[in-house]
C-alpha cells in the first residue's frame, strides 16, 4: 500500500495519477465498508458477550462498561467442554494427516491405473450428507461401545477432514519433482523411508494447511457431537452452545461469551496463519 | 452442513487441476532393479514387494473411506427397509418391512412441507449467495490498497463454527431486543418488531438470510479465482471496441466464467440441501414446522423419535437428490477441464 502511494506521489503528479489514487482509495473505503457489513455479526457477538449478564439483550453499540461475568460463567460451565473439543480436534488432526498424507502422496506420484476413479470416490464422499453417516454410526457405535467416547468422536469427525486433506495434499504433492525421491531411492532408501525423510519435510506447508483445516472442521463439528454423545461426560462445546440455546435463552452474555471462546481458533488462525488458510481456501480453486 | 461448503472450494478447483496435471505428470519413478540380489527376477520382486508397499500407502485411507462412507450409505439403505427403532437397540431385532418406511414418509403430513421448504431454502440460499458473491468477486478484481487483506478477512464467517453463527444470529434476530429490529425501527422502516424466528411466515426467510451470510465467502473465493483466469487482453481488446463496465461484464466476464458458475451452483445445491446446524440452531425446525427440511426430518425421525428406519428413508431421498446434482457437477467439471 505504502509503496504504491509513494510511487504515485513521487511520479510527476499528473492529474491522471492523482485521480487514480483517489479512485483506488475510494475502492479501499468501499471494501472496508463491505467487510464491516459482513463482519458486523462477529462484532455484535463480541459486544454482546461483554454486556452485563441478564436475560435480555442490551442495545449499546459499544461495551462501555465491559462486564466479564459472561466469560466467568462460560468458563466455569463450558470449560470442560472446550477442553473436550480441543482434545477431539487435535486427535482428528493427527489421525486425518496420518491416514490421508500417505494416500495423497500415492495418488499424486504412484501412477495407479485407477487414480481417477479413486479421486471420483473421494469427491463424491464429500457430498454424502452427514446425517446419513450419523444414522449408521449411531447403531454401530452403540454395539462397539464408542458412543460418548473421544476416539469415537475423532473417528467420526475425521469424515469432515480426510477427503479434503487427501485432495488438497495431492494437489500440492503432484508438484514434487520425482528426481528428488529417485535420488534417495538410488541411495538405498525404501519407499517408506523416502516418504518420511524427504516427501513429508518438503510438504511442510501443505501439511500445515491441511492440519489447520482438519482442526477447524473438527472444532466446528456439531452433527456428530449432537448424535454420538448422549451424556455429559464427553461433550464438545458446540453441543454446549446448542443446549444453551434451548427454547428460551436465559443468559445471553454467557452464551455469547461461549460463542466468542469457540470462535477463537478460527479468528486466531485467520490472523496468524493467513497464508495457510488462504492456500487452503483458494488452493485448488485458483489453479 | 454448511461447514462442508468449505471443501467445495478446494474440491471444485482441486479436481480440475488434478485431472489437468494428471495427464502431464512425468512417469513416476521407473526404478531399475534394486542393488541387492535375489532369486526372483527383478520384475517379479518389484511386483511382490514394491507393489505391496505402494498399496499400503493407500490402504488406511481406503479402509477408512469404506467404513465411514461406504458402510453408512449401505447401512442407510438396509435400515430404511427395516423396522429399526427403540426396540432394536434392546433386542437386536429389526424386522424387514419392505417399503413401509418410504410409504410412511411420503404419506406423512410433513413430507410435502419438508420438500417445499428444502427447495425454497436451497434455491433462496444459492440465489442470494451467488449474486452477492459474484458482485463482491467483481469488486475485488480491481486493484486497490488492502485488497488481499480485506478479501481474506472476508473468510471469517465461513470459518466460524456454524452453531456459533446460529447463536449470534439468534441474538441479532431476537424479536424484542435484537439489534436488527431496533435498527429497522430506528430507520422507520418497520413500526412493529418483526418476529423473525417465531413467526411461521418469516422464519424460513430469516434462516435463508443467515445461510446466505454464511455462504458468501465461499462464493466470493471461487468466483474470484475464476475471474483471475480470464485473460486481461480480452478486456483490453473489448475496451478498444468501446465495451466497458456492464457491457464488458455481459460479453466477456459472464461467458468466460460459465464453467466456474456451473460448478459453484451445482456444488452449492449439494451442500445446501444437507444443511442441518444452522436450522437446528436458529429454529429447530419450527415454528409450527415452518423450517422443516429433509435433513431436519431425517435427524428428528432418527434421533428424536428413535425411528431409524424412517430417518434413513428420509436421508436416502436426500442422497438421491444429491446424487442427481453430483452427476451434473461431474459433467460440468469435465466440461470445465475440456475447455
Characterization of the model:
The complex is a heterodimer of chains A (287) and B (339). Helices cover 77% and strands 0% of the residues of chain A. Chain A is mainly α and 287 residues long. Chain A has two domains: 2-49; 71-286, MetI-like fold (Orthogonal Bundle). In chain A, helix 11 (237-245) packs antiparallel against helix 12 (252-272). The model of chain A is unreliable at 1-9 and 283-287 (pLDDT under 50). Chain B has 339 residues and is mainly α. Chain B has helices spanning 5-24, 42-80, 86-91, 100-107, 111-141, 147-153, 156-159, 162-173, 179-186, 203-228, 232-240, 245-272, 277-282, 294-304, 308-338. In chain B, helix 14 packs antiparallel against helix 15. Chain B starts with a helix and ends with a helix. Mean pLDDT of chain B is 84; it is low at 1-38. The chains are: A mainly alpha (287), B mainly alpha (339). At the A-B interface, helix 2, helix 3, helix 4, helix 5 and helix 6 of A face helix 1, helix 2, helix 5, helix 6 and helix 7 of B.
Can you summarize this structure?
Chain A is mostly helical. Chain A has helices at 2-10, 15-49, 69-109, 115-125, 130-144, 150-173, 178-186, 191-202, 204-220, 223-228, 237-245, 252-272, 274-286.
